[in-house]
Structure formats: structure tokens, C-alpha cells
Amino acid sequence: MGTGFLGLKKIGRLNIIMETSMTTWLKKAWQMLVKGSDDNLAKQSASEFLDLGAAHVIELNIPPSDPLLPYLTRAGGPVSLSSLDFDSPVVQSLRQAGVKIVVPLINQGELIGLVSLGPRRSAQEYSTDDQRMLATLASQASSALRIAQFVKRYRNEERERERMEQELRVARIVQERLLPKQAPDLPNWKISAYWQPARAVSGDFYDFITFPDGKLGIVIADVTDKGIPAALVMATTRNILRTSAEHLVSPGQVLAETNNLLCPDMPMSMFVTCLYALLDPINGHFIYANAGHPPPYQRGNNELAELRARGMPLGLMPDMVYEEKEANICPGESVIMYSDGLLEAHNPEGEMFGLPRIREKLAVPECGEALIQCMLGELSNFTRPGWEQEDDVTFVCLDMLSYPYQMSGGGGEEAERLLTELVIPSEPGNEKIAMEKVAEAVQGLNFSSKRLERLKTAVAEATMNAIEHGNQYRTDTPVHIHVIASKSKLRIEVMDYGGASLPEPETIDLESKIQGMEPPRGWGRFLIKKLVDEMNDYTDGTHHTLELVFYLPGEKL
Amino acid sequence: MNQAFHATLRPIHSRVIIDLQGEINAFANQELQAVYEQAENGASKTIFLNFEQVSYINSTGIAMIVEILKKARQSQRRIVAYGLSEHYIEIFDISRLSDYIGIYPDESAALEANS
Predict the structure, then answer these.
(1) Is the domain defined by A417-551 classed in CATH 3.30.565.10?
(2) Chain A interface mutation, best of B27, B54, B59, highest count of A Cβ atoms under 10 Å
(3) Beta-carbon separation of B59 and A514 below 8 A
(4) What interface predicted TM-score (ipTM) does this complex get?
(5) How far is CA A535 from the centre of its chain?
(6) Chain B CA closest to residue A457
(7) B70/A428 Cβ within 8 A
(8) What are the pLDDT digits (tens) for B43-78?
(9) Whole-structure pTM over 0.80, yes or no?
(10) B63/A523 touch (CB, cutoff 8 Å), yes or no
(11) A213, A240 in Cβ contact below 8 A?
(12) Class of residue A308 by CB neighbours under 10 A (exposed 0-12, middle 13-18, buried 19+)
């Protein structure tokens, strides 16, 4: 045999190597087939043939409609082009390239390649023995080629998987950045959160939104499904909800607006369950609305209450109304929010973790992160080792440690009542707002106009000090004011984030100030001390409270 | 609502009155000191501060009045105040500003006592 052609069909393309000895060609063809059907390898091998001096490559495209394809699939062995009597552009091309005989490479009934040969050097026709040998070669080559194709597909899939895993790692980082970096640090509160996606990214999320008046917005939500689609909906929901919460106060209205904005773009069969609550950290007042999320629990004093509020999940139907409920969280009480990844976790027997188990486990005395770890331990015991997490798991816990002000009433002490509480942004001039509002709050206490003016100036000075010195005009740290009355006295607590206790005001040497030996300022605490009946400082290292006490008329203390 | 501060000079005979209006707090400092310095440019040895239209004075405002007293000491001027509310008279007493400033109920009393 003098002239050889090799054709490898790959996605309708033929590589034809011409003019080499049959023996060398077979060896090279075999090497090429064993190495795989990668185009680069094929071209590299073809180049090696060409280096032998006589081979070259012709590429042909075989359209799927070409009758040659079904013919070769059924041929069962080498096919002489001269025997083909149908019209085929590819056959024409092969003939023009000098091809005399083609050997289909068939594997599992599929044409996976083609060996094409030119005329024998002896100018004789291919013998029956030649064709038998070619058929044997084709049989072995097709198996090797198929393996090579599998290897290549596997490599491609592996590369694709690595690329997707890398994208998921980035998506996870992006998603984690959408979550709060840390729980808010509120005086007299312990706030904790936990988030564990079932996959690289999650449909669960939680959020904390701080407002200038000191209130805290709390979100816990769960997007149906998991992975990338859920994560995309999560990011959208979070942003819409934050935007709504910025201009709406009512949790029900926030959810209603978020729902209306989400609905037009929500993919079919996806929705978001979401609890949104507004906490007043001063008195534990908790207003909440729920869009189909598992209801949170309020825990305290050996009691467990489910905080239910009606509402459809977000993104299903527009113009939904969300019921708004209220609760009062007292010192020592907690609110525990969670996602259904806990509720609906299954053990190997197919039993669900379920609400009764959650209620039972919440009876532990722990709170905050310890409580979350306790619940996760129970979940781990329930699902047992080797559990593949079914759904994202998220917790948010709010624990009220104590009131910022000391409410009393029993044990022989006088009962106190909170007349008002104020959160004053730390901006210059706002001390007048505090002054006027406190004056309004004490209207029923029969202060004389003289004492009322003293009270107003004392409150204004205390607030001004808190804004300027305690909070240093930081916009994220307001001044908290509580006005508390008992039968015998009025207490006004002005709390800032200054932490350190302040020295007792000294008597001011005005002459030194006039002579320029002392700065003209420094009157605030001196005046307060002179205007009130008692002035007390408290600090917990983080917050500083100045307490102004006025004895009420008729009471001698 | 915070009320803007205004200070204007009002010469009367050979004396000068500074009519104060609004709130005397940190926002008032620049204008108050500037108008006081204008008042010192005149020959009057007594400078009258009219507080009748002043609604609020805070501790920063007190410090600003101390600053005026310091300037007056240096220029050998006498400061007289009138129109203060009962509460701010008490504040002037607590701070001992009233030891350094003559305090009168109204303009005629102030002018008559310092003629």
C-alpha cells in the first residue's frame, strides 16, 4: 500500500492526511487515536505525518443532512467511494482530494470518526485482505477514540466545574458582605445572629437596620429554593426592604411595599418568607409584621409565646396587607427568630425536627450565642453525623438584659412611671428639642414657672454636653433621655456613649476667666448642679448617664 | 425651632446699645463679638446689652458674655444689661456675671442709672 489518508470526524470536520506509507500511517494513526481526538493533538499528529514528507491535511465539513453520514453508520466496514451512487457534496470533495476508500469508526452505533485512504501505490484496488485489516484497525481505533472523547469531555466538565466553583466562592463572599458584619451593640441588649447556607450561597438572610431615633429594624427572611437563584432573589429583597424601611416606619407597610416592588420581577414559583420587626431598645417595644416566615418566640419567666402575625410571603401577589402586632420585651426575656432550615431538618428516619422539639429545646436557660449553639447542638444530635444539610439555617436572638432606667414599684420603693423617652440625634442645637419635649412631659407635675425654667436649662445643658462631649457629634450615636416620675421626685436620665465618668463640677472662678487666665467656657455642669436638686453620674464603661433629680412640690427629702 | 441670632448697634445720645435678638448659643458667637467690637470703636465708656428679645441663652452663650467682659476689662468699658427674664437673671446670679454687669429691668432704668 503506497498512499494513506486519515480522516477523523469531529463535529462534522475531517482531517485528511495524505501521502505516507501505510505502515507508518497506521502507527501514527494509532498514536493519534490513543492520545485522543483533541483538535490540537490531531493537528500535531498530522504535522508529524507531514514531516514525513508527503502527508497533508484537508479539513472537510460534513453537514448532518449529508446522506454519507447514515450510509457510513450502517456500512459495517470500509466503503469504496466508487461504489457510492448518491449525490453528496462531501463525497465529491473526498473524490477530488483523491480519496478512494473510507473506513468508518463506529462505537455503540454512532459514527465517531473516519479513516480515509487514497489509491494504493501499486495502483491496484484495495484487496479484501486490505479491507479486513482496515476493518480490524477501525474496530480497535473506534474504542480508543471513544475513550479519548470521554476523557476530553471529562476534562472539559472538570474545567467547567472548577470555574463554577470559583464563581460560587466569589458569590459566597459577595453574599456574606450583604449580611451585617456584626450584630448591633445596644446598651442593655445582647443581639446575636447565625447564618449557615446549605450550599455555597444561600436564600436565607438577616439584616439589622439602625435608625436615627435609636430604633432597630430586624429582618430575617428565606427565599424559596437554594443556591444561585435564591441568592439573587435574596440580594434584591434585601435592598428593596432596606429602601422601604428608610422611608416607612410601620413594619406592615414596609413588607407591603417590598412585596409590591418584588412581585413584577419575581421568577415563577419563587417567593420570600420574611419577618420584619422594629425594636425600641429603650423600653423593649417590639412591633412586627410577618410575610409567611416561621413565627418567632418570645421567651421569658418559664413562658414561651409564639409571636404570630398574618401575611402572605413576598413576591406572590401584589397589594397584600400585612398584619402588624406588638410585644413588649422585658429584662431577662428573649425573642428568638429562625428559618425553616431548623424546623424542617430531617433525621435518617425521615422524622422532622419540628416545632414541638424547638419549643422543648428553647426551655434551656442559655441566651444569645449560647442559645444558638445549644439549638445547633440539638440539631446535630437529631440529624446525626454525616448529615447533609438540607436547607439554609439562620438564627437571630434578641436578649434584653435590663432597662436602661431602673423601674421600681415593689419592695417598699416608690412606684415610678416613665413619662417620656427621647432619642435626640447628636447635632448642634438639638438640646432645645430635648428641653421643650421634657418640659411638655412634666406638664402634669405642677412645676412652678421658675422651677420649670431651671429644669429646661438643666436638661438643655445636659443634652448639649452629651451631644458634644459624650457623643462628639457622631450621627450614629444619639442621646437617650428618659423622664421618670415617682410621687416624690422627677428623674431625668440623659445617656450618651461617652463611657467615662465626669468629675464633680468645681466652683468657677469668673475673675480668672475675665482676666484670660482660664478659658471662658466650662459652665455646663456647674449650672446644672446649681439648677437641680440632685445631680448624679453613672457609667458602665460604654455609656455615661447624667441623672437630674427634682424633688416634687410638697415632698421633703 | 431654633431662632436665628441678630445683634445690632443702636447709638443713643453719647451711649451705645447692642440690641440682641434670638438665641445666644454657639451660632451667635461670630456676630455678637463683631458687633461688640464695633461698639468699642465708639467713645462710650458704657455699653448696654439689650436682652429683651433674647429667648434662650445656653452655657456657650454665657461663655460669650464672659468673652465680652474680658474685652471690656481690657478696653476699660462698663457692661450694662437689661431686659433679662427672671430665669436668666438667676443664671447671671449663679454664674456671678451679675457681679460684673449692671443689671436693670428695662432700657430707661439702665440709661438713667448710667447717665
Answers:
(1) yes
(2) B59
(3) no
(4) 0.94
(5) 48
(6) B58
(7) no
(8) 889 999 999 999 999 999 999 999 999 999 999 999
(9) no
(10) yes
(11) no
(12) exposed
